Amino acid sequence: MRVLAFLKRREGLSRDAFRAHYEAVHVPTALPVVGRVLRHYVRHHLREELHGRAGFDCLTAVEYPDAAAMQALVGVLAGPEGEAIRRDELGFMDKPANRWVVVEAAPGARGPAPEGDDPQILVCVCAPNGAGGAGFGAAFSGEPLRGLLDAAGPGRRHRAQLGVAGSAGAPLFDAVVQLGGGEAAGIVGWARDLEAKGAGVLVARLSVHPTPLGVR
């Protein structure tokens, strides 16, 4: 079960300061608790918005063994074991602005996913008004996704994901694609073409910060 969390920094805090605190303080604070459950824990910090505005500063990707494990961890984090984690979050995150979404692989994805700590290009898509849900996912997984992968270049590692269910509030995005490598030639043009059809698109350059969790 894969969950993407779109996290926003506190007002008055720079992205550099947010990233430094997240990696040097928050990850070591949270890891003794979340590391017992998670199978994947990677932070993707925004470095440059190439097209559109993000509304968040870090995309954190986590994976659970199943939904029951996710709910169990949520309960632990809400209790005494999570107190230090919650307190630290209030010091550098704008928590009311944070959003998360459960995702599944887009049917049109092909090839290996990005790995390691190499830079990535992030592409996030909002469906045109009234066109979200399964219908949008099926449509995006066809020609739009093929066009994006063609624009990104042959053989490029990628992970194409569709939103399934999310936190309270309107979802930020309906499709999220991570592309290995920091080159964005052709992708911004693709984004503009898709926006001309009514979608909203973000293209951003990321730095990637994985935490090895071992094999479970």
Structural notes for this entry:
With 216 residues, this protein is of the alpha+beta class. It has one domain: 2-Layer Sandwich (Alpha-Beta Plaits). The chain has helices at 15-34, 67-78, 83-92, 134-140, 143-152, 187-195, and strands at residues 2-7, 40-51, 58-63, 99-105, 120-126, 158-166, 175-180, 200-210. An 8-stranded antiparallel beta barrel has the order 1-3-2-8-5-7-6-4, surrounded by 4 helices. Strand 2 (40-51) and strand 3 (58-63) form a beta hairpin. The longest helix has 20 residues, at 15-34. It starts with a strand and ends in a 6-residue tail after the last strand.
What topology emerges from the helices and strands here?
Elements: E1 2-7, H1 15-34, E2 40-51, E3 58-63, H2 67-78, H3 83-92, E4 99-105, E5 120-126, H4 134-140, H5 143-152, E6 158-166, E7 175-180, H6 187-195, E8 200-210
Antiparallel strand pairs: 1-3, 1-4, 2-3, 2-8, 4-6, 5-7, 5-8, 6-7
Helix pairs in contact: 1-3, 5-6
Query: Quick check: average pLDDT?
Result: 92
CATH architecture: 2-Layer Sandwich
Task: Give the DSSP E fraction (strand runs of 2 or more residues).
Answer: 25-35%
Number of structural domains = 1
